[in-house]
Amino acid sequence: MVNVGIVGSTGRVGSLLIDDLALDENANLKACHVFDELKKSVPEGTVVTNDMRVLLDSCDVIIDFSAPAATQSLLEEVVENGGKPLVIATTGFNKHQQNLLIEASKKVPVLYATNMSLGVAVLNKLVSLASKALRDFDCEIVEQHHRYKVDSPSGTALTLAEHAAKARDLDLDAVRVSGRDGVIGARTKDEIGVMSLRGGDIVGRHTVGLYNDGEFIELHHTATSRNTFSRGAIKAAKWLVNQEAGLYSINDCLGL
Fold it and tell me: Residue 218's beta-bridge partner residues?
């Protein structure tokens, strides 16, 4: 039985992790890190704490669906004092937080994915294949999320764009366009558009389009339930506990 700790247990996906772990035959909830009152009931004996050290000492693996500031605290604790394997699904990191992720992975296994959906993991591979094979096609990515999402573009859209750019030997920072307004001129050959829509209660929809004269291909992924993310993270956590220190992706977990 794998003892799991959660950072972000009061969030949308964090609360689903509590439910899904209760149904899992090979993993159980051992501890929750909270900044305020835990809104969901947890099994008797679950450690509820605001101390990252206590969380790390209580569990075999940590799943983090929180915010950059909370993840930073977790990573700093691991970098300074060691810890347990980390499954990180937080998005919106700055450069310092990205560097902390790399430093933590030198001490413990860290699986980082901007989207824990197994379908999105396959979509990333398809985007790499299609972008390389269709090098002269224009690449545009559109992501849609609920009105409450705070970062834009989504981490998932940026990861898809990174796969497209890498397949074409391009630097994404140099070719990404995330807004068009006014008389901006014709689209450049290498640019990769990454656009965001926000509204309603959309869980998540990502479309990668490859457009050419006379034909185009669009690859879509739609998440209809946030359990897609929580169950994917649990699968990743059960895999990660047996790995050596290093930085992993959801693709590694799936053997892609």
Answer: 209
Query: Prior bond to 109 cis, omega within 30?
Result: no
User: Catalytic one among 30, 145, 206, 235?
Assistant: 145
Calpha distance 182→200 (Å, rounded):
27
Active site residue 189: no
Coil vs helix vs strand at 28: strand
Nearest to 65 by CA among 128, 11, 130: 11
Nearest CA-CA partner of 17 in 233, 240, 245, 247? 233
Burial class of 78 by CB neighbour count within 10 A (0 to 12, 13 to 18, 19+): buried
Residues 105, 106, 107: CA angle, nearest 5 degrees: 90
Q: What is the pLDDT of residues 109-121, one digit of tens each?
A: 999 998 898 899 9
| Tokens standing for residue 184 | 């901006």
Contact status, residue 225 vs residue 203, Cβ threshold 8 Å: yes
Active site residue 149: yes
pLDDT digit string, tens, across residues 57-91: 999 999 999 999 999 999 999 999 999 999 999 98
